[in-house]
Design brief:
- The protein is an alpha/beta fold.
- The protein is 23% helix and 27% strand.
- It is built from eight helices and 16 strands.
- The strands form four sheets. It has a five-stranded mixed sheet with strand order 1-2-3-4-5, with helices on one face.
């Protein structure tokens, strides 16, 4: 019997983290979306895989009009944007949206397949009604990654740029129109982004990633900063075993490795990593 795609990619559960913040969990517990309610509007952070069943689910959780924003454009975060007429994103997310056709569902059949890309920018503030949300450009894993800072609640939403398992730092969804993935540039950007988020400590107290458990400890930021530094000084730990069934299945040539320091790790292309070994971070 063929597996049911809805059971795999859109079996949603949800709970309130506080009185105006929902965690929407799916993918066997490994992925989260977030629904933030203000006095006037609600904000849905990411849209999953494109099942066509997300909007009715979200509208059972809130009576407020829902705006959609993407932490980045990868197809597991942007698939159901077409259930709404508009989605907010950084301009860099466009090149990741080119991969939507590779998803498990036909997103051309969603109600708004040509949904409006409403571009936002670093530092911009969205007001949900007595709940301002500041947007921070933290692009590294992807071409247009947003963090969302909710100072009222002390929440920081970081998408795929920091998590408890690993951050993917290679071209995950190849497409001929996408810019090449330059590991050196991405690692340097990632370190600067984590330093920036750490520098905002006191304005947030809880970190919510998109994958593999939420919330996570503040020390993950320190470990990701140290991981980049250890890559460049040659002391990071390299592991050939990914311990990730989906990444291993998509890497038949065994090009990838896990590079680790303490709790933080990246998946990278081995050859790209070897090119950096011994390169100065300064």
């Amino acid at each position: 019997m063929q597996p049911d795609l809805l059971d795999i990619f859109a079996s949603y559960t949800s709970w309130k983290y506080n009185e105006d913040t929902w965690i929407i969990n799916f993918m066997d517990g490994s992925q989260n979306m977030y629904l933030l309610e203000g006095d006037e509007k609600a904000l849905l952070i990411d849209t999953g895989w494109g099942s066509g069943t997300l909007r009715p689910y979200v509208e059972r959780l809130t009576q407020k009009p829902v705006q959609v924003i993407l932490t980045h454009g990868h197809l597991d975060h942007s698939g159901s944007c077409g259930e709404w007429s508009c989605a907010m994103m950084l301009p860099g997310a466009d090149s990741d949206l080119l991969t939507l056709a590779k998803g498990p569902f036909d997103v051309s059949k969603l109600p708004y397949p040509d949904f409006v890309h409403q571009y936002v920018e670093d530092g911009q503030v969205l007001d949900l009604g007595n709940r301002p949300i500041q947007l921070l450009d933290i692009s590294a894993h992807s071409n247009g990654s947003l963090a969302l800072l909710d100072r009222r609640n002390g929440f920081l939403f970081v998408g795929d740029e920091a998590e408890s398992a690993q951050v993917l730092m290679y071209e995950t969804y190849p497409h001929p129109e996408r810019p090449p993935f330059a590991l050196d540039q991405r690692l340097r950007a990632h370190r600067e982004n984590m330093l920036r988020l750490k520098g905002l400590a006191g304005q947030w107290n809880t970190i919510f990633p998109a994958h593999n458990g939420a919330p996570i400890a503040h020390s993950y930021l320190d470990d990701y900063i140290a991981l980049v530094e250890r890559i460049y000084d040659g002391s990071a730990v390299i592991e050939d075993k990914l311990n990730h069934v989906h990444a291993e299945a998509g890497d038949p040539e065994h090009r990838l490795c896990r590079v680790r320091w303490n709790k933080a790790s990246f998946f990278v292309v081995k050859d790209d990593l070897m090119e950096l070994w011994g390169t100065s971070l300064s």
